[in-house]
Amino acid sequence: MSGRAKPEKPLIRALRGERLDRPPFWFMRQAGRYLPEYRAVRADAGGFLDLCMNPEKAAEVTLQPIRRYGMDAAILFADILLIPHALGQPLDYREGEGPVLEPIRDAAGLSRLDASAASSGLAPVMETVARVAAALPDETALIGFAGAPWTVATYMVEGGGSPDHRNTKRWAYGDPDGFTRLIEVVVDATVDYLAAQVAAGAEALQLFDTWAGSLAAPEFDRWVTAPTRAIVAGLRARGIDVPLIGFPRGAGLRLAEYRDGTGVDALGLDFAVPTTAAREKLGDATCLQGNLDPQLLVVGGDAMLDRARAIRETLNTGPCVFNLGHGIVPETPPEHVAALSALLRGD
Question: Which residue in the list 13, 34, 69, 79 is annotated as catalytic?
């Protein structure tokens, strides 16, 4: 005799297009340096990459904010540059400088990547996913993620963060066929990576395209929309139907184009997007996620709570997920996160 199937978790219901009286919530970078318990684990782990690749410690920091605040979802603690690292691109995280990679800017650099090694190199991440999935409360969903190809490619080409992505654009504009080969390598590795996360227990996925807004319209379609569409299609072709959130930061007026051109199930809004205009333009059928300015979380108090109420009211005419418009910053007081979480839980 079979038992009754468990109802879907609130986050999954919202991402699949159901409007809920209390929108589910989670926060980008909800696990991180603003938490003292995270800093303790990080200090014990050694470097940042060591932490990402240590399943026991990465699972612990993934679960820390759930224990503290009771979000409706945990998001895997990892990094968008683990794919380049697994492909064989040397990667280091330097204090005060961020990620540093050996730049790839031509066919010779591409030839040094080894797609066959990526899956084994990312195996510790799958163990982290499995550990978290086994430890989460029944009602809490687990989100897996990856960087979108354009954003990942900018780091691979620039060798780290860049204010203008000049080397990436020069390659993409001057040798689009050569740059396409880099994008295709990242697309294929990302499909494998996300599929493995789902097999290990992830129930939803998010693609972070942090630098989507750095491209003009024709290039946006080629380097943001098309690769994301290829990832969605690649996952669906494997029978993977978990909801997928696209977060094309800075897309602005191109959000509808991105939604329609990629096939993502939900749209993450950055904090510069007016929520009223977004809901009007995108309609009440699309699940929208966002989009409190992280600096309001630093400020706290009525300024934070009033804005959060306004965002929730505006977005909740259709399916929605409350989140920030970018990640929690390190100087955020944990008690402000607690106050916002209490509001969003309805305590």
Answer: 79
| Boundaries of every domain in the chain | 10-345
Active-site annotation holds for 155: yes
Q: How confident is the model at residue 98 (pLDDT cuts 50, 70, 90)?
A: confident
Active site residue 94: no
Rounded to two decimals, what is the model's pTM? 0.96
Fold entry, domain 10-345: TIM Barrel (3.20.20)
Residue of 19, 33, 68, 222 with catalytic role = 33
Candidates 42, 249, 259, 279; catalytic one:
42
What is the C-alpha separation between 70 and 241, in angstroms, rounded? Answer: 26
State how far Cα 204 lies from the chain centre.
11
238 is catalytic: no
Buried b (16+ CB within 10 A) or exposed e, 180-203: bebbebbbbbbbbbbbbbbebbbb
